[in-house]
Amino acid sequence: MRIYVILLTFLLLVTVFIAPGWAEVTAVKAGRILTISGEPITDGVILIEDGKIADIGTGIEIPENATVIDAGKSVVMPGFVDASAVQPVRGDLNEQSSEITPTLRISDALDPQSKVIKRVVQTGVTTLFISPGRQNVISGLGVVVKPTGNIPQQMIIKDEAALTVVMDMDPTQGNRIPRREPAVNFYYRRPGTRMAIIWMLRKSFFDAQQQADTEPISDPNLAILSEVLKDEIPIHVNARRAIVIRAALKVADEYGLKLIFQECTEGYRVAEQLAERKIPVVLGPFYYYPGSIGQYREGRQVNWNNAGILAEVGVKVALGSGGQPDTIDILTAATFAVRHGMDRDEALKAITITPAEILGVAERVGSLEKGKDADIVVLSGDPLDVTTRVEKVILNGKTVYQ
Amino acid sequence: MKSRSHITFISMFLIVVITGSITHAAPVRRKLAVEAGRIITIAGEDIKNGVILIEDGTIKAVGKDVDVPWDAFVIEAKDQVVMPGFVMAHTSSGLDRENENMPEVPFISTFDSIDPISTFFEDSLRDGVVAMLILPGNNTLLGGTGTIVKPYGRTVEAMLIKRYTGLKISLLPSPNTSRMGHMQRFRRYMSELKDYLEDYEQRKADDEEEKKPFDEEIDVTKQSMVDLLNKKLTAFIYCNRAAYVPKALEIQKTHGLKTVLVLGPDCYKAADLIAKSKLPVVLAPQLIIWETNEQTNEEEMKVIPMIFHRAGVKFAFQTDTSQYGSRYLWYQAATAVKYGMKRAEALKSITLYPAQFIGVDNRLGSIETGKEATLLFLTGDPLDAQTWVDQVMIAGEIVYERAKDERLKKLLEPPLKIQEPKDTD
């Protein structure tokens, strides 16, 4: 009996000690590696262990037990980071019970079986920022996820990543001013003007400021807002027109808020101010002309080179797909940004490391460096060539698409 | 002596006036020689460092060893790629309204509706489109006849290439009708038309028998349909979904129509059927659609041009503004190349094939001797996203220059520093 116990313990010990030796090692060989963080590597190797990059460079010895992925002459890049991604959630994105809902978490509605997640992975996107809808003034907390896993917890890499605030006219959509009949309909209550949107925002932060010294804060909404005031949670402000961006800057000054702008269609008109305040932007869907697509009725001026102009004056620019993955993939966004005048390297950063930095997950994703997550995209050629295909996507060291 | 000097003076004055008016009326130089870094002829192999000789707006010679006549004006394009202008075989843009609100209006024409100052034409020229067939929209059963225009000119008459070409038949049920009702309406129209034509022929025969002069003309509201049956017009049959394709083929067969199919993205399911019919096809602007595989529950990307290409269908691309690149014909072609289509074939799908479909391939679609000198001067390879159209030449005349495109400059350059408080809603 005892001998069995000893034997069993011995066997267990052996497996425990040997197991790391059996850990999955994958080596990716490629003709060209764009690390984004540093110089491109020609004929390099990426060594992946436990879903992390163990080593990267030229002349690395590949262990015998490693699975080798030979990408041949292909170009290898870090997986793309989409900071205004499509929402893989079940149900509506907009909570209609109130306009100010900072405590809502989109992570509660995540759907790992969502179709869009399977599509988005095929376009090379390996990290997504998902925010609640745009019909509330303060619509809730966003989450950073990877398009993998069977349950939401496996997807999430950073919950409560940012608070989404909408200053565009979206929250007024469909709202009416009550005339004769009593205000019973939901649409009778919400803001009808830009003034009201900004007033609601101001009032929320004012209340939070008033409560800031009381401990503990009884209202959970105000608790979240006071965390924002303390810069513990960044805020993403959806603003398209220059007038809205300026209004947001004013509110930010009043309450000492640190902003990140989303969409920012007319950002090029306030580029200097944004650069001066070091406010990063996540550019949303691209429009050739205002009003050419139903969604963008606000604003009359677009500049095709919005990204280029902003980057030129030193604004941190991320390019997002704007939540339309089946029509626009993020690599095309970078390709066209370069066509319209953005710097090549800047554009590649704008879909990898810059959004990762903006979302606060740059220590894990966004570039190919030792210790970072092994999120790798294998491309058939130059990333900014229209005829280049995504050949393979590796997520956390596992091939998820080819 | 005095009178002679008068005559000399008058004749000299006349010469000045006449030559002045000629140059004013036709700023086209008679003889041109384009020296290009690369010529994509479409008709054959690409030519490196070739010359295109142009006389009166027509291509006289293309090749490597073409002698440039002493009196030809030389256009240097050594670091540019020269190719034929893009042709769009089907569009409903540039109209003030696409659809008439009655289902059977074969007698109307887009010629009356084209808006020359629409930005669509300006954009088209900037993007390298030199000819397009503008047809009525897809919401009318018998939508009316089309017009081929170039996107250059201040009036429709100046833009005109060919009037009265193509007739739109849309199998997409009109609002408030079922598919059954829609097809029934078409059949009823055709049978009434047949009856009318029989009556007409009868009257004609009767009058001829009685030796009376017969001067009755065909009803103007039916004329275009009669021309369709006589193959004077091409039917552009729009199928939104694969289920309508067999109906379209049936219509084509029963009435013996000259047909081009205009397809929605879903029609890829009928690719084999279409291949068998050998009809030319205009693809939907959306080239990639996603579908869920019922067995594996995986999301699959369907690349529509590749499905048709493999089936052996000859097709042309069209554009819209729904996506980044879908407004550019070159991008549509590049997308097909991305998923495996041959470059040469993809380039034909935006030049020669659409020109054939709309019947202007005797003038446009390739760089060949005898064709119109309608050329694009590109900064690089046509399928590269970093390439711009530098110049557009239509019939020997440069009609677009990127260096002088103020609007494009405004769209790409940072705005001038404006006074801050000027921003009003």
Describe it for me?
The complex is a heterodimer of chains A (402) and B (425). By secondary structure, chain A is of the alpha/beta class. Chain A has two domains: 114 residues, Urease, subunit C, domain 1 (Roll), CATH 2.30.40.10; 286 residues, TIM Barrel, CATH 3.20.20. Chain A contains eleven helices and 16 strands. In chain A, the strands form two sheets. In chain A, strands 1, 2, 3, 4, 5, 14, 15 and 16 form an eight-stranded mixed sheet that branches. Chain A has an eight-stranded mixed sheet with strand order 6-7-8-9-10-11-12-13, sandwiched between helices. In chain A, strand 12, helix 8 and strand 13 form a beta-alpha-beta unit. Chain B has two domains: 95 residues, Urease, subunit C, domain 1; 231 residues, TIM Barrel, CATH 3.20.20. The N and C termini of chain B lie far apart (76 Å). About 2% of the residues of chain B have low confidence. At the A-B interface, helix 2, helix 6 and helix 9 of A face strand 12 and helix 9 of B.
